Amino acid sequence: ATPAMNCRAEVLEVSVEGRQVEEAMLAVLHTVLLHRSTGKFHYKKEGTYSIGTVGTQDVDCDFIDFAYVRVSSEELDRALRKAVGEFKDALRNSGSDGMGQISLEFYQKKKSRWPFSDECIPWELWTIKVNVVNLANEQERQICREKVGEKLCEKIINIVEVMNRHEYLPKMPTQSEVDNVFDTSLKDVQPYLYKISYQITDSLGTSVTTTMRRLIKDTLAL
Amino acid sequence: AMDTDLSSQDRKDLDKFIKFFALKTVQVIVQARLGEKICTRSSSSPTGSDWFNLAIKDIPEVTHEAKKALAGQLPAVGRSMCVEISLKTSEGDSMELEIWCLEMNEKCDKEIKVSYTVYNRLSLLLKSLLAITRVTPAYRLSRKQGHEYVILYRIYFGEVQLSGLGEGFQTVRVGTVGTPVGTITLSCAYRINLAFMSTRQFERTPPIMGIIIDHFVDRPYPSSSPMHPCNYRAGEDNGAVYPSVEDSQEVCTTSFSTSPPSQCVFTVTKAHFQTPPPVVTDTLKVPVMGLAFSHQLSSSRLSYQPAALGVGSADMGYPVLFAGGLNAAHPHQLLGPGKDGGVPPIPSQPAHGTQADQERLCTPLDGVHYSAATPSSSEDTETVSNSSEGKCGSPHDLLETIFIRKVGAFVNKPINQVTMANLDIPFAMFAPKNVELEDNDPMVNPPDSPETESPLQGSLHSEGSSGSSTGNTHDDFVMIDFKPAFSKDDILPMDLGTFYREFQNPPQLSSLSIDIGAQSMAEDLDSLPEKLAVHEKNVKEFDAFVETLQ
Question: Would A222 be classed as within a structural domain?
Fold first, then answer.
């Protein structure tokens, strides 16, 4: 079976207040990417390689009673913030009930010969379903801060459970193959190839797809 | 199919991986409970010293504690490495919050590649640990630690003991990694019932506020007897014991801060040593028999002052959790008088300190010979067996307790090299420089200081061993000091971050405490008859005054 057929799919759901969307999404995405990033590979002769060091840092949320750990990479953080920012704006502007989902997909590239374009074969898909709630007063907001914080703790535990299953991971690539498996464009860390996309559910319940393909890579390519 | 046994190189590698994994696990857990945000940098060029390709700093004391606990062994079936996280309030109440367990079970994965897959999975497991340490309840508690409570850690090796977590504790699994010799599992059991035990279990450990009051309250009736022991000590034989005055001298005030432990100094009163703790000594023997336990109770935010024998009368700077390191079998008792009731009170009184107190604390350090805690080259069995004798050879053994005053991140200086200017407390430069000043300080030595010596003082000199755990002493309490990323003023040995954090959590005003309220009320009531008499005498004057108001 090809990886596509074995693509793991995990779904997480959160209900948050509008101003909590960004931090909640970043917390989840960064936690996943923490587990799915390695240090930079340095290939040496004879097919051996050494791996750089991944630093980490604590992030405190302003609107949620919550803190999480992310990889110390400004490039990666910027990329995620950009994606999450667009998702948040789309949620706000869509006029929907505030429901949508953001997806983080890890994939491998399979090079095809001309005239066929490269295939992207996903091997892990994380979907975060978001429901934005509106709160009436400060007291409710305070409760929401705590509740969402607790919920996010549960999500982190869920993510770690999945990671611990040690299920399919792409084989460690040779030097010529490394760009088919990893995103080597960052200077300090090396996440698996990934893409982020999102959908907003309009008030009729249908999905209005606004997919940004290869958002991060494109952004950085500018 | 039965594979060939692990090659010797693989076996060596695997053992090394597990050992360093255990050490890094401890670092991650302890660092996650220091109360600060952790930040390390990624580096694209491998440095060769970053185990598991992760930038995890090594706090030397923590590594030292962990190595002592492991005593050269590795987690194996029935032998787990546990990191216990507990909370201790300024009133001396303590409770266990979490036990992190690194265990090994028998399920082997013979096929797995050691140098590659196991290594990478251990790295992944450490990442999971980083994430999970931020989501248990103790994380938020530890971020708020300061004047009201501190978070402490203790490492032990052997059987997991979860009974201190209260009913209904929950477990979260961080992850597992299969190896050819067994499956490593990492999990955390954490308390969910955070209500403190309501009964005060330490009748003989008065709240520290009482002692501070003795410092700063003007005695309205100078002719009265020396300060009384606090109400909480009402059961004591007032005559015999430690006069509070001397207590105040010996009290090493603590001032907690939410920031690096440079501000954390524990207060202990001599009072609690009136009973030499033979039981503690006895229980010391417990770990000695049998396995090579080495139990240290380390405060992740603690700098303490060892008993300062021979420094005037201010000689009882006793590390708060000093005795904490002693009892392997009953970790609960480490943090305070026995829950079982049988263990004599062990001093464990962090105090609300003020700046002045804190400075005063520091002074006795000068001129006293302390041996800095240096990692002993010999392994634990040796040190543990020393302590089993119970009696120190000399008072100095008592002094060998651990005092590490971190003046810089991960710098370990013997205490006698630490000058006031180095001590990372605000206004340290203005602290009194030596003990003599303290003796002249009327706040410390009120005129009516009694002659009676504290029996504890006597017993310390004679036995020299009360409560000491020689061998383990220098390992028991460590202080970790991180320098925040703030610039340091060259003039004052204080950086902005420290200052800010220090004053972010000021100690509660003593005037707001119930005790002082009660005390002054009692005095007010006493003085009422006198006042009434005076008022009656002047009633005509008062009446005239009232007339003018109308």
Answer: no
Total domains in chain A come to 1
Half-sphere CA count of B215, side-chain side, radius 13 A: 24
Q: How many CB atoms lie within 10 A of CB B218?
A: 5
Half-sphere exposure of B371 (CA within 13 A, CB side): 16
Structure tokens belonging to residue B522: 């009692």
Question: CB B132 to CB A56 under 8 A?
Answer: no
- Please say if the pLDDT value at position A136 is more than 70: yes
Which residue(s) pair with B183 in the sheet? Answer: B105, B178
Query: Which residues does chain A have within 8 Å of residue B131's beta carbon, measured at their own beta carbons?
Result: 31, 34-35, 68-69, 156, 159-160
User: Is residue A133 assigned to a domain?
Assistant: yes
Query: What is the spatial distance between Cα B541 and Cα B368, in angstroms, rounded to a whole number?
Result: 62
Interface-testing mutation among A53, A75, A155, with chain B (most B C-beta atoms within 10 A): A53
Residue B196 has pLDDT above 60, yes or no: no
What is the ipTM metric for this complex? Answer: 0.91
**Contact at 8 Å (CB) between B55 and B40?**
yes
The residue count for chain A: 222
Q: Is residue A219 part of a domain?
A: no
Would an 8 Å CB–CB cutoff place B131 in contact with chain A? yes
Task: Check: pTM over 0.90? Answer yes or no.
Answer: no
Contact assignment for A156 to B131 by CB distance below 8 Å: yes
Query: Which residue reads 């999945």 in tokens?
Result: A162
A35·B132 Cβ contact <8 A: no
Choose the closest CB to B44 out of A56, A160, A187.
Answer: A187
Is-cis flag, bond preceding B507, omega within 30? no
Q: Mean pLDDT throughout A65-71?
A: 97
Tokens of A201: 């559910």
Distance from CA of A137 to the nearest CA of B (A): 25
Using CB atoms, which residue from B37, B128, B174 is nearest to A58? B37
Residue contact A164–B55, C-beta within 8 A: no
**Per the domain annotation, does A2 fall within a domain?**
no
Residue B105 contacts by C-beta under 8 Å, 6 or more apart in sequence? B77, B182, B183, B185
- Cβ(B307)–Cβ(B243) below 8 Å: no
- Ranges of each domain in chain B: 8-190
**CA distances (Å), A67 to each of A38, A150, A152, B135, in order?**
22, 11, 9, 8
The 10s digit of each residue's pLDDT in B255-312 is 222 233 322 223 223 333 333 333 333 323 223 233 333 333 333 333 333 333 333 3
- Residues of chain B contacting A157 with CB distance shorter than 8 Å: 132, 135, 172
- CATH assignment of B8-190, among 3.30.900.10, 3.20.20.60, 1.20.81.30, 2.40.37.10: 3.30.900.10
Answer whether A94 touches B (CB < 8 Å). no
Q: Which of B135, B186, B190 to mutate to test the interface with A (most CBs of A within 10 A)?
A: B135
User: How many Cβ atoms from other residues are within 10 Å of residue A86's Cβ?
Assistant: 16
> Quick one: average pLDDT of A21-38?
97
Q: Which domain holds residue A204?
A: 8-212
Question: Would the CB atoms of B130 and A69 count as touching at under 8 Å?
Answer: yes
Q: Which residues of B touch A58 (CB under 8 A)?
A: 37-39, 134
Question: What H or E segment, with its residue span, contains residue A38?
Answer: strand A37-38
